[in-house]
Automatic annotation (TrEMBL):
Reactions this protein catalyses: a peptidoglycan chain = a peptidoglycan chain with N-acetyl-1,6-anhydromuramyl-[peptide] at the reducing end + a peptidoglycan chain with N-acetylglucosamine at the non-reducing end
Xref: InterPro entries: MLTG-like
Function description: Functions as a peptidoglycan terminase that cleaves nascent peptidoglycan strands endolytically to terminate their elongation.
Gene Ontology biological process: cell wall organization; peptidoglycan biosynthetic process
Gene3D superfamilies tied to this protein: Classic Zinc Finger, Endolytic murein transglycosylase
Cited PANTHER family: ENDOLYTIC MUREIN TRANSGLYCOSYLASE (PTHR30518)
Swiss-Prot/TrEMBL site (Important for catalytic activity) positions: E213
GO molecular function annotation: lytic endotransglycosylase activity
Top EC category: lyase
Protein name in UniProt: Endolytic murein transglycosylase
Keyword Membrane: yes
Coiled coil: none
Amino acid sequence: MLALFLLATVAVGGWLWQRYEGFADTPLALAGSERILTVERGDGFTDILGKLRELGVDEGHDLEWKLLAQEMGVLSRLQVGDYSIRHGITPSQLLRKLERGDVIHYRFTIVEGWNLRELRAALAADERVVQTLHELDDAALMKALGRDGLHPEGRFLPETYHYTRGMSDVDLLRRAMLAMDKALAEAWEGREDGLPIETPDELLTLASIIEKETGKASERPEIAGVFVRRLRLGMRLQTDPTVIYGMGSAYDGNIRRRDLTTDTPYNTYTRGGLPPTPIAMPGRAALEAAAHPLPGNTLYFVSRGDGSHVFSASLAEHNRAVACHQLKRCR
């Protein structure tokens, strides 16, 4: 009797072992589109397995999954993040993927010309980013980035940044800040001689104005040339985007004559030179234009209404261009 019991036990054990061995390499049947498995901080193996079940992974007993994870040595080495799971992946392949941290990479784009308020709003709208900025005002943000006392406007390079779920908004901004540090240093180092700009921060400020004034990318160097010549001559820059920035939340989409005459630190109609800080996030092309303005004699420009501008060397020419393109009184 005992012999029969032992024989049955061995047979059952052998069957279970064959079943387990087969399970490790059995493709998962996941009909339809890919599934996204989210592994969060604090998740144990049981939590992860529960999420797999919710995604429709029915193959294998929980014990088989745990034994496989133990055999592979990955039970406590599964990494945080979002994972793409497609039809046909095997349990062993899936566990190895979780161990490697082969996660989905997302993209966050900082748009050229955004100001800090717009950047904050875009980060807050991304649910995959860990949100901490709501706890930090601008001063606290820069302190967290190791730039205590520095004004944050313009300090983050417009580019597309790849990240994984679980990255914080501050960490993402740190990458963009360091990228701007590098881009600004390169533009400053390669600038042409004789510019009426004394510091990299002034170059950044000028680039931010160029960025906001440019509707047609090819015009950046010419717009830069106008502003550089005005600075050399001691003329006021008289650029609307700086006025709008100085208005802050009072700006309702329209700029009126009284706005141009109301003095603020950013009103370049009432004050000479550059404003005290950048007014937006300039891209690499705007930085390059500020460092290498187009030579010439133009001192004015007015929008045609299609993103491009008419450039003029004299006030009389400029007034005619304004009459034609703004007042529709072309002669």
